Amino acid sequence: MTGLLSLRNVSKVFTLGQREIRAVDDVSFDVEEGECLAIVGESGSGKSTIANMILGIYPPSMGTIAWRGDVLPARRELRHRRAIQLVQQNPLSSLNPRRSVGASLRLPLDVHGIGDRSHRADRVGRLLEEVGLPAEFMNRSPAALSGGQRQRVAIARALASESDLVVLDEPTSALDVLVQARVLKLLAELRDKRGLTYVFITHDLSVVRNIADRVAVFEKGCLRELGTTEAIFANPQHAYTRRLIAAVPVVTDAEVALRKRLMENDNAAA
Amino acid sequence: ETVLRLDEVPVGELDPGKATDYADSILMFNIYDTLVIPAQGGPGYVPHLAESYEADGNDFVFKLRQDVKFQSGNPLTAEDVVFSFERIKALGQGLSFLFKNVDGAEKVDDTTVRFKLSQPYSPFVASLVRLPIVDKKLVMENLGEGDGEMKDWGQAFLSANGAGTGAYKVVSHNPQEETVMAKNADYFLGVADAAPDTVRFRYGLEAATVRTLIAQGEHDISSQWLPPEVLKSLAADGAQMLKETGGGAFYIKMNTTKPPLDDVNCRLALASAYDYASGLKMVAVTDDVAQGSPATGGVPVGMYGAKPASAAMNRDLEAAKQHLAACKYKPEDFNLEISWIGEVPIEERFALLMQANFTELGIKSEIRKLPWALFTEQVTKPENTPNISQIFANAVTGDPDTLLYPMYHSSAAGTWQSPEYLKDEAVDAALEKGRAETSDEGRQAAYTALNDRLMEIAPSIYAYDRQSIFAASNRVKVPALSDPAKAFGLDGFGFTFRLMEMTGE
Amino acid sequence: MSAPTLRIADLGLGFRTWAGPVEVLHGISLHINKGERVALVGESGSGKSVTARIVLGLLQELRSARISGTVEFEGRDLDRLSARERHALRGTRMSMIFQDPTSSLNPVYRIAPQFHEVLKRADPAISEAAARDRAAALLSAVAIPEPERALDSYSFQLSGGMNQRVMIAMALANEPALLIADEPGTALDVTVQAQTLALMRDMVEEHHTSVLFISHNLGVVREFADRVYVIYKGRIVEHATAEGLFADPRHPYTRALLSAVPRITGGGIPEIEDVSEDYYQPLVVHEGCGEPEGVA
Amino acid sequence: MPPVVRLLAKRLGTSLIVLVGVSMLIFTIARVIPGDPARIALGPNATAEQVEALRERLHLDEALPIQYGYFLRDLSRGDLGISLYTNRPVTADIAQFLPATLELIVVAGLMMILIGLPLGVIAARYRGSWADHAVRIFTLLGVSAPSFVWAVILMLIFAFYLPLFPIAGRIADSYAIASVTGFLTIDTLIAGNLAAFGNAAWHIVLPAFALSLSGIGQAARLTRSNMVETYDKPFIEMARSYGFPERRIARRFAFRPSLIPSLTIIGLDFAAMLGNAFLVEAVFAWPGLSRYGVAVILRKDLNAIVGTVLIISAMFLLVNIIVDLLIAFINPRIRYSQRAS
Amino acid sequence: MKRAAYILVRNPLSLTGVILITLVVFGALFADFIAPFPEHRGAVVDFANFNKPPEWPYLFGTDLVGRDLFSRILYAYRISLLLGAVVLAIAVPVGVTIGLVAGYIGGWTEYVLMRITDVFLSIPPLVLAMSMMGLLEPTLTNGMLAVTAMWWPWYTRLVYNLTRSEKEEGYVLAAEVIGASRTHIIFREILPNCVPSIVTKMTLDLGFVILIASSLSFLGLGVQPPTPDLGSMVADGAKYLPDSWWLTVFPGLAILVAVFGFNLLGDALRDILGVDQ
Ligand SMILES: Nc1ncnc2c1ncn2[C@@H]1O[C@H](COP(=O)(O)OP(=O)(O)OP(=O)(O)O)[C@@H](O)[C@H]1O
Ligand SMILES: Nc1ncnc2c1ncn2[C@@H]1O[C@H](COP(=O)(O)OP(=O)(O)OP(=O)(O)O)[C@@H](O)[C@H]1O
Ligand SMILES: [Mg+2]
Ligand SMILES: [Mg+2]
């Protein structure tokens, strides 16, 4: 059975003058309907690049990406657009500086004809409240928001389209823990309620641990390991995975203990 | 070394077969010579390259001087004269129309030439001031590409080089920028020392530029096209005003084929309503210098058939109203189209003056600016020709025929000079008589009759007789343009450089 | 005792907007001693970044901002310094790591010249080549794999984490007395985060740099900071040593924060109210943590 | 082949196509402009037969495509025909007048860049201060009168009341410089005559300044308004927080990202001056192509119109290509765009 | 609306702009009541008082046929502002749209649109206007058409280059990802970010358009005497500098006041249009 979304031998090569950068190198994996697949990996390992290819922002250099069994065309159709949504990593530039927050949020509603016209403003207000922002923020310009507030707007926007798959590129790293908790909860709820599927890109393994079903670990553009969250945290196969987990900053002693255990394993393996 | 600097509108045409404009005329009169030249201080023509000439039936026979050499060193012979004539006829451009009635030129011997005319044509001698004599040998050595025996008739060569006998030689020539000329030391009449050594003849200077240049002592003689206000301020700064009188007039032409001006009463009404005095005031420079003098009729003062200067035209609103009452059109029923030539800004003011004057009669009008090119196009069809057009016309040879025939003869209708489309037998007859008559009295009578008829049927408003005013620095003396006793009766001839004196100031 | 590197007393900030005035900071006070690492944690939008901007003197120029209170740097009141003197401090005595590194780097210049510019603040005569070498060394220190390539890239050609590391390297380059780090770890993967924190710690210890560490990642705070201020909606609500705070969080808001941290041991996302009247309770100051008396 | 060269080659190729389009269009337009070219050329007194003969010689009685065929045939021999206005080959006229105009507008273009852009930078940097207002008034003055009015005013001020600059022409009459390239500044250098070079350069200043005033104004205003936007960007805040000198921030960090509109307009202005400089050329008695172009249009000198317009178009396309490349250079994101179009 | 009022009131310069423009428009609308010599807009000549320097009752002096310049300038505002407004109202939307579409869509669309623009741009305006004259009646409307025809490509080029740069911004990606239509992205996302440049150019162009009227009327297109227009007044007066300076200076200042006002207003407009509600 093929998944909701499947990547087959996908590579992406950037040319930088004479040099070539292989940002993603022959990656294949499936995303199953309804799951939350976390993508973790070091910085520069190609996570955002994969996200951008899934969204069709640029085409893969090699390989194919299929949606429900059909290969996605380079120019996405509107149904694909609605089906797959993105929260970008850089929250500042993803909001149009010359449009109010409300206008940006309303866009997906208008595009996909969600809700009836007269109630869309209310809907926008509710979306803001869902991500923990006051509804009045819809009149603000993005420049007058803090980093975390912008990120929440971006999340609200991705959720607004009621899509099937949401690619979240570092959605909560700019949020404080309370809001993060709230947003994560919201994401989990929506997943249950609407049967959403997430591709969740993050470094925060604590978050991964608590919301992901499966984890894909990337290093230098390659997929190193893919397994259920339980398996990855209980028994990481790849040394790099172990190193990742071992480096997580923690707040409780129980966590310190877990970290220690993994570190010992790693030293033993080495 | 003395340098004379002056300007004119572009372009400077150096080819004698194509020269027409004022700028071209100045070039021709200095670089080339003609068989006759206008007499100084009075009417008529005197032999120049010719020693003498006489009429022989319709024909004219010219005896050439033998001491004349071209600037190239070649001697002047009858062949050169014949060549010059044939060339202008063959090219068929420029002022070649003046020689329409001339069937051919014939070398009788080395120093004698016979021009054969098809009919009696008294303005012929006058026309010869427009036949520059070209150095045949030099031209033949420099023929460019072209079909036939004469190839290009030396057009390529003559458009950039001089080939005349004149007192000045071409040093360099750029038709849009400047022609530089230098004194010809071997000129057959000699050139006075006081005459400028070098002449820089520039094209297309703006009024403000000329004003500044003269004030800074970097320019000597302006063109005649400066607006009166600019001349006024130059005069106030101490510049001298040179003056060239006669030979032309400012005509306001009425389209006689279209209502309402196809009714002579309407035309007369307008002619009486026009405010002649204000018009003259507009072109006044100082108390005693103006770009125009009162007109007395269809023929400028000083020409055959002209009325005396005392008989100036005047506004008469009462008469205008009477004429209008007699007109078959009601003033409220029409809207006159008054055109003016975009390139000649002062015409706008005349358009406004007319508009204001005609409004007093209850006549509505509308002003249209027309670029020259468009104007020449529109006048080719009577229905496109504006009701009223404004024209500065002059006699290119100094003979009234070259002024009046192209304006009023019915065969000449539909050019820029004849937007009246006048078809009047009496006028035609008088014009033809004027050409054919050889005696002064005969011509005088013919043109007097013409003038009377023109006053009667008023195809035009005779706004004023034109005088050209040139602002000049005090470094130069131009007797021909400042002393009536030394003036020539031909436009542009005052710019004969050899007769000018640089004062060295 | 010498004056603290940074002392903020009763700092207030409001913005005038077309919709009316907005109060952002309601008189906060904090200080950082020499060589000390102080964290400022709090809700997103609580006023952390603006505080940093005020310290650097960036908000003062904004016409719509109204600022009250005192900011002292090394005992000198910033308000009393001339613009030129304030300017001289930036990039040399104090520097900042920005929260959104990708938009904080100029998109039309490669990294190398931007780095050169930074290094020139300390050494105006530094040559391009020397600057490049030094930049490459600093970039390797923050674990950028191919420093040469990074130097020749534009910010949009680097990943988010790489840009952040570039910013960190820039901030540390001139060995400032005060480093303001606005969420320096957010875009970094944990291994690099650990590495850079270690690097920052080394630097700070070696040069006695004071750090104002802005973060909401309590794990990082715990591992890095000596002292912590918790800020909620423009008010400081708790002030404690790092140890004291994690062992004994006293303010309801701090407690909520701590319990909201997802645990690597699992257990799901806890259920916590994110707005509550309790969070407005007055400031709690732990023993031994107080603001020094004003000596301006 | 480096990508820039390839891009350039491609753009030049397509420009050729545009040029063919322009040639057809202008060929038609030239015949639509009112007035009978033969009549105008022959002067007011020509007879109907003369006019007819000339029309025939110019193939004016043939169908338009056939006329265009003649034109192409001649063009392939490098022959643009004879100007009816100056009676010289059009190519000779262009060769003579083009360098003068180019020289003038290159200097004017440089002035737009060297004066307009810095003024914009100053205005943006000192936004709201007296300097900003002074720049605003200066730049708006530039658009409140046409360039030739400024030409007259400048001439009166700097050549008449304060005789600092020469009034007219390209060089003082006393210098005789052999024409090699047609560019006097270059020819004087070739001749090794520094005094003449100085004199020629001195002659360019006022007309070029008059011509560039409107461009300076536009460049300055556009630079200012875009820099004001850029000043709000985070990377400027970053530069400030690092204490980069304000002057450097203005000149480098905020300036370059704001350059696109001003550069576009300067490019367009530069090319447009070829056609629009005529009145300024007239005031300063500058024997340039623009003046020639207008004269031939007014006289409906078919060959010369087509020739001049083609040259102007070619120059224009060239400048546009350069601007496009420059913009891609200034904004690397355009250059390195990964996006499929 | 509230925001607009707030921005206007807070910035004294914007307010100055509003006041200047109000004065100009007021002067134009009520010229009949303000002008000391309302009849001087038309067919009047007064050779007793021609070419007079400013002196009572001729505030700005008289022209070469004796008409009061002050009165004529008031009336000239009517036609000049109309001309400016109409030309910009057509040229700007057309040019901007083409530039946006070409810059955003790229590919063949870009190729074709930009080459057409090139053709229009590379034909000198005078030639274009002359050919218009050959084909059309020389009325004011057609004159405006001619100016519009030579004006739009400038906006196209300007916006095209801006768009090429803007489309690389994250917010454009965001909108694409949402599935927003091209129309939306072009007009609602990218366009607002080009507004500063467009508005700035427009406020400057007002002056240029007013002035271009003079070259049009030189060709016989457009405004015909005795109807006053500022461009022709400035241009025609230049011949008489420096002696009859008032002929050029006052109409020039009149243009300056209008352009200055619009420019100040434009800056405010930019802030007002800043954020799309
Ligand atoms: N220019 C401005 N105009 C109006 N309000 C502003 C402006 N800049 C910031 N604010 C408001 O000030 C508050 C504090 O912003 P700040 O950037 O300091 O938050 P923060 O604590 O850094 O949050 P985060 O962790 O999300 O970055 C926010 O509510 C923000 O909306
Ligand atoms: N437009 C581009 N041009 C050239 N190289 C690029 C471009 N975008 C990304 N890269 C390179 O591709 C690699 C992967 O980048 P990517 O943004 O996918 O990393 P990432 O895994 O998202 O990292 P981070 O967690 O830091 O965001 C990096 O080496 C980066 O420099
Ligand atoms: Mg990334
Ligand atoms: Mg922040």
Automatic annotation (TrEMBL), chain A:
For the biological process aspect of GO, one term held by this record is:
transmembrane transport
- CDD domains, per database record: ABC_NikE_OppD_transporters
The segment(s) forming the ABC transporter domain are 5-245
Q: Which Pfam families match?
A: ABC_tran
- Molecular-function annotations in GO: ATP binding; ATP hydrolysis activity
The family database entries (InterPro entries) matched by this protein are listed as: AAA+_ATPase, ABC_transp_ATP-bind, ABC_transporter-like_ATP-bd, ABC_transporter-like_CS, P-loop_NTPase
Q: Which SUPFAM superfamilies match?
A: P-loop containing nucleoside triphosphate hydrolases (SSF52540)
Q: Which UniProt keywords apply?
A: ATP-binding, Nucleotide-binding, Transport
Which superkingdom is the protein from? Bacteria
In terms of SMART domains, this protein maps to: AAA (SM00382)
Family assignment from sequence similarity: Belongs to the ABC transporter superfamily.
List, alphabetically, the PANTHER family matched. Answer: ABC TRANSPORTER, ATP-BINDING PROTEIN, TRANSPORT ATP-BINDING PROTEIN
The protein's name in its UniProt record: ATP-binding cassette domain-containing protein
UniProtKB/TrEMBL annotation, chain C:
CDD domains the UniProt entry points to: ABC_NikE_OppD_transporters
| Gene3D superfamilies linked | P-loop containing nucleotide triphosphate hydrolases
Q: Which InterPro entries match?
A: AAA+_ATPase (IPR003593), ABC_Ni/Peptide_Import (IPR050388), ABC_transporter-like_ATP-bd (IPR003439), Oligopep_ABC_C (IPR013563), P-loop_NTPase (IPR027417)
| Domain ABC transporter: residue ranges | 6-258
Q: Where does the protein end up?
A: Cell inner membrane
Pfam families from the UniProt entry = ABC_tran, oligo_HPY
The membrane topology term of the UniProt record is: Peripheral membrane protein
Gene Ontology MF term list = ATP binding; ATP hydrolysis activity
UniProt keyword terms in alphabetical order: ATP-binding, Cell membrane, Membrane, Nucleotide-binding, Transport
Q: Which GO terms describe its biological process?
A: peptide transport; transmembrane transport
Is Protease found in the keyword set?
no
Q: Which PROSITE patterns does the record cross-reference, listed alphabetically?
A: ABC_TRANSPORTER_2
> Can you list the GO cellular component terms from the UniProt entry?
plasma membrane
Please give the PANTHER family that the UniProt record associates with this protein: DIPEPTIDE TRANSPORT ATP-BINDING PROTEIN DPPD, OLIGOPEPTIDE TRANSPORT ATP-BINDING PROTEIN APPD
What family does this chain come from, according to its entry?
A: Belongs to the ABC transporter superfamily.
Q: What is this protein called?
A: ATP-binding cassette domain-containing protein
Automatic annotation (TrEMBL), chain D:
Query: What PROSITE patterns does the record point to?
Result: ABC_TM1
A molecular function GO annotation: dipeptide transmembrane transporter activity
List the source organism. Answer: Nitratireductor arenosus
What keyword terms does UniProt attach to this protein? Cell membrane, Membrane, Transmembrane, Transmembrane helix, Transport
Pfam families from the entry?
Answer: BPD_transp_1 (PF00528), BPD_transp_1_N (PF19300)
The membrane topology of this protein is: Multi-pass membrane protein
**UniProt-recorded name of the protein:** ABC transporter permease subunit
Where does this protein chiefly localize? Answer: membrane
**Where does the UniProt annotation locate this protein?**
Cell membrane
* Claim: Transport is one of the keywords in the record: yes
Taxonomically, the superkingdom here is: Bacteria
A single Gene Ontology CC annotation of this entry is:
plasma membrane
| Matching SUPFAM superfamilies | MetI-like
| Family indicated by similarity | Belongs to the binding-protein-dependent transport system permease family.
Where along the sequence do coiled-coil regions lie?
Answer: none
| Parts of the chain that traverse the membrane | 12-33, 104-126, 138-162, 174-194, 258-284, 304-330
InterPro entries, per this entry? BPD_transp_1_N, MetI-like, MetI-like_sf
Give all residue intervals belonging to the ABC transmembrane type-1 domain: 98-327
TrEMBL record, chain E:
ABC transmembrane type-1 domain: which residues?
A: 77-266
Alphabetized, the UniProt keywords read: Cell membrane, Membrane, Peptide transport, Protein transport, Transmembrane, Transmembrane helix, Transport
Q: Which CDD domains match?
A: TM_PBP2
InterPro entries associated with the record: BP-dependent_transpt_permease (IPR050366), MetI-like (IPR000515), MetI-like_sf (IPR035906), OppC_N (IPR025966)
GO terms of biological process kind: peptide transport; protein transport; transmembrane transport
Principal location: membrane
- GO CC terms for this protein? plasma membrane
Could you tell me the superkingdom of the organism this chain comes from?
Bacteria
Membrane topology label? Multi-pass membrane protein
| Localization in the cell | Cell membrane
Q: Membrane-spanning residues where?
A: 12-31, 79-107, 119-136, 142-160, 206-224, 244-265
Give the family per the record.
Belongs to the binding-protein-dependent transport system permease family.
The name on file for this protein is ABC transporter permease subunit
Source species, please? Nitratireductor arenosus
